[in-house]
Design goal:
The chain is an alpha/beta fold. The protein has helices spanning about 25-35, 60-75, 95-100, 130-140, 145-150, 155-175, 185-195, and strands spanning about 10-15, 40-45, 80-85, 100-105, 110-115, 115-120, 200, 210-215, 215-225, 230-235, 240-245. Helix 1 (about 25-35) packs parallel to helix 2 and helix 2 (about 60-75) packs across helix 3 (about 95-100). It binds manganese (II) ion.
């Protein structure tokens, strides 16, 4: 058990891509929520918590139920937990939010972190060179499309999601690597539109701290890491932010009661 840190701080995670096939990452998260996160003022999940989410019926899966319960325990202990949709779990809805105690956030959202205005995004909207993806995003973020999709039988939704994931994996291999990163002009626009606030986002799986010069303003951009090899989080306090790595809680070949 960790002692509450003397410095007030806020934590950010994204791109965990949890599924029944990632028991080690799921265990790492559960451990993180039960220990490290307890000392935080708040925890923000900036999208792609799940590898895919085709409706809150997903809560019936043991691993997802365990994740929701442990988030809920954290929220109930007095640490507010916020969730912003990613491009994989954009259908995560009110039922999961209720079960997990998470508050859903719009993308983008600006929060005040110890006096520093901070712009939060998943990050996919910054990759505007990927025109094909942006078209897809506009379609699936349309409430009418979502309503129609969620009204389909579960097995049909599973089939459609598999199809999209298959296509996206193929497309990634073909697309130029630069198209998969943020578009610099779009990042500049985001800074401009939000009074040059500090920016925190995930999605690109390229953890780093970037400095930008926009209209004469020095701007800071933090990119969160994915959880493919090990867990990680961004910790911010009044003095600034730093990326931290987590030990994998347990071997992927270990007991997998969360599948
Ligand atoms: Mn993403």
């Amino acid at each position: 058990m960790q002692v509450r840190s003397s410095i007030p701080h806020t934590l950010f995670i994204s791109d965990l891509h949890l599924s029944p096939d990632t028991p080690a990452a799921t265990d790492t998260l559960l451990n993180f929520l039960r220990t490290t996160a307890k000392a935080a003022d708040a925890l923000y999940v900036l999208g792609d918590l799940f590898e895919y989410w085709i409706g809150d019926e997903g809560l019936a899966q043991p691993f997802a139920k365990a994740v929701a319960q442990v988030f809920r325990a954290l929220a109930d202990s007095g640490v507010p937990v916020y969730f912003m949709h990613g491009n994989r779990d954009f259908l995560l809805g009110g039922q999961f939010a209720l079960a997990s105690g998470m508050k859903l956030l719009n993308d983008p959202t600006v929060v005040d972190l110890y006096g520093t205005p901070t712009l939060l995004m998943h990050g996919d909207t910054l990759c505007s060179d990927d025109v094909e993806y942006q078209k897809f995003r506009a379609m699936v973020r349309n409430p009418a499309w979502q309503q129609a999709f969620l009204a389909k039988p579960l097995d049909e939704r599973v089939r459609m999601a598999r199809e999209v994931r298959g296509k996206s994996e193929q497309a990634k291999q073909i697309k130029d690597m630069t198209i998969m990163d943020v578009t610099p002009a779009t990042v500049d626009e985001a800074f401009r539109a939000h009074q040059y606030a500090r920016l925190i986002h995930g999605h690109t799986h390229r953890p780093a701290r970037h400095e930008h010069r926009v209209d004469g303003h020095g701007c800071e951009r933090w990119v969160l890491a994915d959880w493919y090899d090990h867990g990680s989080y961004l910790q911010c306090d009044a003095g600034g932010c730093r990326l931290q790595q987590l030990e994998q809680a347990r071997s992927a070949t270990g007991p997998s009661e969360l599948r």
